[in-house]
Each structure stands twice: as C-alpha cells, then as structure tokens.
Amino acid sequence: MLECTVQEDGNFARLNPKGRIDSMTAPEIEQIVGSLILAGKRVVIADLEHVGFISSAGLRVLMMAQKQLKKVDGEVIIYRAADTVLDVFKMSGFDTIFFLAADQSDIDERFKKVPGAGAVVSKHINGIAAQYTEHDVAAGSLLPIGSQARLALSQYAESDVVTVNAADIQYGTGLAALGEAYSEFKDFFGESVVLNRSLFFYPAVKRPAVDFMLCPSAGAHIEYRFLYGFGFGGQFRYVVSFDADNGFIQLNKLIDSFFAVSSANLLGIVLLAESRGFMGMNLKQIPSRENSPANNKDIFDTDNFSSWFNFPVEPGDINNIIAGTGIAVKDKNKLPPATRELFSSDSSCHIHACVFDKGPINRNLETFENELKRIITECGAQRVQHVLGHSRFSSGIAGIIELA
C-alpha cells in the first residue's frame, strides 16, 4: 500500500510517498514523476522519510527519471531517507548517482546562486516569466531563396530549383528536398526547416515521413534543393527562457514578448518549446506545373484548399518537443519589398518547425546550442509544418538573432 502527495513550486516538485516502493507501487511513482517532468518540473525531491522499504524496482523508476532529467539539466534528489532505505541505495551503488540530502539546508546549499555567475535578466512579459541573456554581437544576415510567386498556381519547374550549400544556411525554412538529379528529387519536395545547417523536410506525398540530413560541421559539402524559402545566420543577440503563467502561451504572444526584449525590427528566431497544443499546416501536393489545378483556380481557393493542404481542426501534439526556425517583424513597412514578400498579409512571423517526440527540454541559457544539437540528433522527428500563430507552448527557450 502506498500513499503519495505532491507539492509543486516553480521548477521544483516535492514527492511525499508513504509506505513501500516495490514492484507493485513503483508504476504509480513512475506515472507521477513522468507527469511532473512533462509539466516542466526539472528538480524532483523524493522525500523518503515515511518510506520503510524500497526494492530494486523502486530504484529503477527513480533511476529512469534521473536519466531523463539529467539530459535537461535537472535531477532527482533523495531527501530524508531512513537508514534502511539508504543502505539499499549504497548496496546498489546508487548513492553516487543521486544527491542525498539530510535536511533542507543541504538542498538550499545545492541551489544557492553564485554571485556574478552571469548577467541574467528576469522579466514578466505578456503572461510569461522570462529570463534572458544579452550578447554584444553584430547583426545577422537574411538570405531569400527562390520565389513564392509560382506557388499559388502550382507552376514550379526544374529551372526554379535553387541549390543551397549547407555551409551557407545556418537556419531557415521553405519547400525543400534532397537528391542529386532533378528526376530523383522532384517528387519529394515538402515543408522544411534548417536547424544549425541540418535539414528536416516532410515530402508532400500520400504517406509522408520526415526525411533529414544532419550536417556535422560548417565545412561539410552537403547540398539542399529549394523551390523557395529563406535562410538566416549570425550570433544570438539574446537567449530567452520562458514559462507560461497560466498553462500555455500562444505563438503570436510569444513573438510579441521577443520584441519586448529586442528593439530590432526584424528577428531571426530559433525556438525549442514544449507543446500544449501545436497547430501546423503542410502541403499535400508538390506545386509543380504537372499538378496545377484543373479548374484554373489557385491552390488557396476554397474549391482547392482541402486537396492541397493539411490544415488542423484543433490543437494536438501535447507535450511534444517543437524545434523551429523563422523570422518575425515589428513593422512590415520598414522592410524592403523582397523581404516583405516572405510574410503573408495577415501575419508578422513566418516559422516552420519539426515536431519531435514527447519529452522535456533543457532551458539552461548557457547550453542552448548543445540542447538544440541533442534534440536534432537524439529525438525522433514526426513531421515538419508551417506553424500557425495560435499554436500553444508551456515553456521553452529561444535564440534571437537581430537581422540587418
């Protein structure tokens, strides 16, 4: 028999089990801890004062949670464990894997902030608790690729393909494919996102699956084929960590909060977030001349839209990791025409994202680029889509490049 209560405070959660943790009760602990991690908790304090026995099944559950949290700069702390329980940890060698705290002062000391450890600014914006660091770097650059002019009437041909070397596109979005000859890749174009020179794309075919090419270094000679899109690059002026106050924040309001941090008019955004209801759309057909609508209406027309686009009815992908890149603008009138065309008339941002497996992310401001690398190399990709403004996120971290 096991009773278990939970107390939550910010990124911390205190687990208070009473009774035995064995093969019969360990699944309950596993479910509770798993829910806490997906809810954004990064430190789980397992108060074992009232646990009289723990078996290897119980240790295994705590160990699995520890592995998951360590990936995102968190941990499980074993607190006030009785001697008989501590003996089980020591016999199993687990006393070297967990931090063992005898009283609250041990926990306070472990998380004591070191003065001068970094200029982190805390700010409350649009229902978001944000923290960010600012860096003195030069403005980044924007690279338009091809043109969207042929999209509406599905008029793309081989002559419209733009080849971009991976070394020349640090981040970006568009309609892209992989392959050497046009005859090989022409039927596989799809929504794409470039994450630190690695391309993920979702072919516009009947049974799509995300394909990708990881680019291990800026010097790798890898070529991406685009019909249209854009890329951007540079150093992050800001790295922003955010948590929604009331469960979730919509993308549009999140973008507004970035402009509350940066005074630039045009931003390149690299986003890692935990979904509370993702909404994205993607092409179902490749907009080539041979697929041009027979009714001579454009693909956005109400008569054609459903056969051309997967469009969400309601939010989905709860707790999935969303990794996206794109641009956002404060005042479109200040943009040159070529840049203005990258935005739809009713939106101030243009972002594509890859939906990865469910899981937590590391929101440590100092390790953002390492966390991005971990996600694109270790997590399973489900699809790539154009992100709609009412997509919902609970928490995350973003790198912001101010674009000239």
Which structural traits does this protein have?
seven-stranded antiparallel β-sheet; eleven-stranded antiparallel β-sheet; 404 residues; alpha+beta; Transcription Regulator spoIIAA; 60s Ribosomal Protein L30, Chain: A; 9 helices
Model description:
- This protein is an alpha+beta fold and 404 residues long.
- It folds into two domains: 2-110, Transcription Regulator spoIIAA (2-Layer Sandwich); 141-402, 60s Ribosomal Protein L30, Chain: A, CATH 3.30.1330.
- Helices cover 19% and strands 38% of the residues.
- The protein has nine helices and 24 strands.
- It has helices at residues 26-38, 56-70, 83-91, 104-110, 182-185, 251-261, 305-308, 337-340, 368-378; strands at residues 2-9, 12-21, 43-47, 51-54, 75-79, 99-101, 121-125, 128-134, 141-146, 162-165, 171-177, 190-195, 198-203, 211-213, 223-233, 238-244, 249-250, 266-277, 280-283, 309-310, 320-329, 349-358, 381-387, 392-402.
- Strand 12 and strand 13 form a beta hairpin.
- Helix 1 runs parallel beside helix 2 (56-70).
- 41% of the residues are buried.
List strands and helices in order, with pairings:
Layout (H helix, E strand, L loop, with lengths): L1 E8 L2 E10 L4 H13 L4 E5 L3 E4 L1 H15 L4 E5 L3 H9 L7 E3 L2 H7 L10 E5 L2 E7 L6 E6 L15 E4 L5 E7 L4 H4 L4 E6 L2 E6 L7 E3 L9 E11 L4 E7 L4 E2 H11 L4 E12 L2 E4 L21 H4 E2 L9 E10 L7 H4 L8 E10 L9 H11 L2 E7 L4 E11 L2
Parallel strand pairs: 2-3, 2-4, 3-5, 5-6
Antiparallel strand pairs: 1-2, 7-8, 8-16, 9-15, 10-15, 11-12, 11-15, 12-13, 13-14, 16-24, 17-24, 18-21, 18-24, 19-20, 19-23, 21-22, 22-23
